[in-house]
Amino acid sequence: MAKRVNVVKFGSVSVRVSDDPAGDVARSLAVRLRGAIRRRGSASLAVSGGSTAPSMLAALVHEDLDWDRLTVWQVDERVAPDGHEDRNAIQLWFMPTEMKLMPVAGDDLGIAAMRYAETLPDRFDAVHLGLGDDGHTASWPPVPHPDATVVSSPNDVAMVGDFHGRGRMTLTPGPVNQARGRLILTTGKSKADMVRRWLERDRSIPVSHVCRSSTTLFIDPAAAAKLPG
């Protein structure tokens, strides 16, 4: 049976509702990355962690890509020892390409964040993001978290204090919004309210700092339950 995909436009944001949003993100990323390799000889991708990332990454590795010409960075990472189960990096071990992992196991994480920023490309070809049920994306915490101001940081990479049990290193809105495209993946009924609030331009939630132009939201029917009429 053919998979049903419903595409809705909310201003400059495209919303794709399907039963396989993770697979849709993987296929869309593959198209973008193949195009970048064809035009510029290489491609750059930043990927987030979270509960929806593993299924998307598992689908992506089966796509036809010149993996030797792709480099992958992390959007965010939890501060934990190398190999710890809390690390987003453990979701990436099977990726057949060059990985630029965030260095969160050292002592001076401020300097580590600055050095990681120096490795970033001038402009990502694509950035994959998630959306939490508190409205966060990347590791940009909501108010009243003391580091909610990270969304205004002049640095490309910044540190965030304890957020959902771990300190974080994260890309800031600068490099995320300079990317050629952003793909947000979120699923489940617990996300439906934040999906609605973002599409209605609620400026109080962290995801509102994501540029809407050239951004596509991939969701399942449960997360689409409260789409604005």
Q: How are the elements arranged and paired?
A:
Elements: E1 5-10, E2 13-18, H1 21-40, E3 43-47, H2 53-60, E4 70-74, E5 76-78, E6 98-100, H3 109-119, E7 126-129, E8 157-163, E9 166-171, H4 173-178, E10 182-186, H5 192-199, E11 215-219
Parallel strand pairs: 2-11, 3-4, 3-7, 4-6, 7-10, 10-11
Antiparallel strand pairs: 1-2, 5-9, 8-9
Q: Which properties best describe this structure?
A:
alpha/beta; 229 residues; single chain; three-stranded antiparallel beta sheet; Rossmann fold
Q: Can you walk me through this structure?
A:
The protein is α/β, with parallel strands linked by helices and 229 residues long. The protein has a single domain, classed as Rossmann fold (3-Layer(aba) Sandwich), CATH 3.40.50.1360. It is built from 5 helices and 11 strands. It has helices spanning 21-40, 53-60, 109-119, 173-178, 192-199, and strands at residues 5-10, 13-18, 43-47, 70-74, 76-78, 98-100, 126-129, 157-163, 166-171, 182-186, 215-219. The strands form 2 sheets. Strands 1-2-11-10-7-3-4-6 form an 8-stranded mixed β-sheet, covered by helices on one side. The protein has a 3-stranded antiparallel β-sheet with strand order 5-9-8. It is globular. The model has no long low-confidence stretch (mean pLDDT 96).
